[in-house]
């Protein structure tokens, strides 16, 4: 739990910055399109897997949130395409002087899809079911994300002041609290529907969102229809279908044939074909992520900085990008993506230089190289679409300097379990940011505090100077001052080279050119309320 | 059948041994000869892979990735990492032949031993063994291999173990049935009366006479084992990259159906051809060794 | 006869108990932790513990086993770890997709297989016979998952005739009636005069059914051929011929009827195998059936789902084989004596 607490502290600071600018009522949405959205139509979104469940409190996976995000609203939400927070079901809020009480003024006249009114009781219900063990529906959990964000320790109680006013009392001041409320797990559910469907609620979700669930065919499709009484902008579509097509190329073929309008996770192999297709438009945004190879300092010979640097010289990242990411990736040199403030662009990446690598290895006492293992994740992640293929490339590149690699892979759960405790010598992993703060990467993934099994810092790199910088950056409120600290930390990271940073992926969503108004959210949500299609 | 009459005519001239006689009949079976040729071809490829393959199967050259066949020295083109397809296919033969023959060998030996003992002694031992075999046969083959690999963890060795276990019951049944038939035959009874030991009876007298169907089954089993290991690798449960295993090559080719047909088709063709070889040979063998088995 | 059936049914009980037991221990002994899979990169030890406790994974194995067996005999396999829904409900929703695919594959395989088999037998030792038999042997040797890819490459990517996967065009908002989409489509067509559903369902099932049916076509053709050859040698066929009955009539009225007996057995066994063995085909064609579901459940270490899935599929498999045996013994009483 410790790492989560610290993680939360960091979040507080970052969120403080975020919500300083957005305390007031949300500004009216400027209609993005010049000739205005058109009503009607059906949009089919092809994605790689089915939702696990549609109760946003219960699930943790992106596919589930793809579904639940359409059906539910949160008190506050991220502005389209940003990590900035604005009001949603709460029109406005204020914080008490001691920072312990957040009072939300709820939007009047909002109804759940089942016709029951949205009010303070529903807000209290949605949180209490996740935090109060004696709540009648607490056993619908486990409430994984709520627990993972440490919310149980943050919220003391949720008080219903009147029908449209609700007060959150915190145990301690917590600046990122507002940003947390924009996340999916904090969605407001219909208490009546939860009672009605009981354990079947995850397949019969009822919220206030822009779309309502019509039907769900397991492993095939989720059909949603417009909520005509939606309080906010849109929805413009009559219906929205989330269809499961596991194979990336099959998704592209379905898009090409017009069977679907928008696809998730395209294969890098097909991007060129798609870019050349006049009917397809590629919507891209730099991802809030990093994919890396961590070298385990507790395993020989990676305790020696020369060996770690040699790896950085010997691995040709350009080749990995070309062979695996295609146009959907950019070479990484720092542990944070360039989209995050404090990214240190002055750092010169390690050039591809096998001779230099051999030299360093010889200095470290390995003139003929050595044998070690490289772990490759069994699954595609946003930051690493094909770890096994990267492993193959790295294996060949390192063979060049005499380092013999055995590729190791386990099922995903086992993989995480074993890397957490440092069974690997070198392992691939990565991270997608939750809230856009550098701390969410730098402290969480690289500080000495995170190097305690089960570790987030799977390099087990315990650098005092680096860790102190990251801790100091947590305590300072001024962003410029913090940025300086993080920039300095990145210099140390570069010299000490606990990772071979590989790439930041570019999130690409191919759509038919009849689709308009789709915006990629950095947090990974797929939002369709403002999307419309040519009629 | 006509062949039977012919042999009796030949006997009067030179009396070929039973082995020679069967061998001659096998050589007359066109399918079997073609099958043998294919098997030999793959075995030669497997053994001499380092000499035959034009390139190192693991050598990458990303700048020429996905080159079509007949690009410079790459007769069958290159794969997604610029490795030579032909060389990978040749080295793949090594893996598939080894797995096919080894896994069938193991399950055949195990199955035969269990089947002989169970059939010979009968009684409660036989009942327990057969109950267990029934349970194993209740699992559909594909599902059983997948579940076993899931327990053991994905690797080529574990895939082979899964195939061994899944193929075992058929040998047990086959051998047990013929042992039951032979056990009461005159020659066994005669040997038993002169005090031959159980062990000698089981493996010295009964087994050789029950072996024909087992050999046929084993030949066909090799083909099936090659298919199964390719299927497991395809699902990510068998060989791991960068091993040039055919099933694994097919699996990673999925995203190239739009852009590089040779990466998709060639490993499958290699698999098909090698399995076909064993099936042709096995079919011919069955006609010769065990006409009763002919459906 | 009834005694024979009863005995076979009784023998089924220990077999199925054995299946349940083996599935339980295989799953329990497999490495990997469902709690960990659920939580992904961001798990805390405390959360892991909570989830393990909720799943009952912290209990002694013996207790878990007894619990499982007692519930399994009532067809209650609990709830999926992943989705929280009763696993039997998920199986009920997905099984029809597999059944439909296997049925269509079997219809194709049976009709083509018997046709090829009869033709080869009648034209024994002609080029037609040789081609068919080499073709059949090739079919038996086929890596089905690869065939699926090649079919997609030719007919979906190249020619654009068929979709790459799924059961029906999602934009049609099809509301299943029987969950067998072909039958549902037919019902809608008759009821409302709208054939779009049926057309779409057919277009989607063609490629997977061909891929899945390839091996059975080959096996049925081979069995039909040899059984037919055998029958054609029988005395009564010779008699019929010498009595001047037209050859076509001899073949189809007399010989084929008797030759089909072993073929029926093969068809039954193959159908059982297809229901269970559709995992690869379903994976390639994104067919939302039970095979793909079991496979994903295995990767996610979703214990209850794997247990229920394997148990149900194996039970159906055993039952089909039993029915085949019983049918066979009805028409061929000699079997019962053994």
Provide structural commentary.
- Chain A has 535 residues and is an alpha+beta fold.
- Chain A is built from 17 helices and 20 strands.
- Chain A has helices at 2-20, 62-71, 120-131, 144-148, 151-154, 177-180, 191-197, 248-256, 268-276, 305-314, 317-325, 354-363, 387-399, 412-420, 439-446, 464-475, 479-496; strands spanning 42-47, 76-78, 85-87, 90-95, 101-106, 155-162, 165-170, 211-217, 221-226, 239-244, 262-263, 280-286, 289-295, 329-331, 371-375, 404-408, 426-432, 499-512, 515-516, 532-533.
- In chain A, strand 6 (155-162) and strand 7 form a beta hairpin.
- Chain B is mainly α and 295 residues long.
- Chain B has a single domain, classed as MetI-like (MetI-like fold, Orthogonal Bundle), CATH 1.10.3720.10.
- Chain B contains twelve helices and no strands.
- The radius of gyration of chain C is 24 Å and the shape is globular.
- Chain C has helices spanning 2-29, 34-39, 45-54, 61-72, 87-122, 127-140, 144-158, 181-192, 196-232, 235-242, 247-277, 279-284, 290-299, 303-331, 334-337.
- Chain C contains 15 helices and no strands.
Concise structural overview:
The complex is a heterotrimer of chains A (535), B (295) and C (338). Chain A has 17 helices and 20 strands.
- If you average the pLDDT of chain B, what whole number results? 84
* CA-based gyration radius of chain A: 24 Å
Note the overall shape of chain B: elongated
CATH architecture heading of chain B? Orthogonal Bundle
CATH superfamily of chain B: MetI-like
Number of strands of chain A: 20
- Largest inter-chain contact set: A-C, 49 and 51 residues
Low-confidence stretches of chain B: 1-11
Total domains of chain B: 1
Task: Assess the beta-strand content of chain A as a share of residues.
Answer: 15-25%
Query: What is the makeup of the main sheet of chain B?
Result: none
Summing up helix and strand content along with how strands pair, one would put the structural category of chain B as mainly alpha
Question: What is the share of helical residues of chain B?
Answer: over 70%
Count of helical segments of chain B?
12
What is the approximate shape of chain A?
globular
The amount of beta strand of chain B, in percent, is under 5%
Give the helix level of chain A as a range of percent: 25-40%
- Alpha-carbon distance between the two ends of chain A: 52 Å
CATH topology of chain B: MetI-like fold
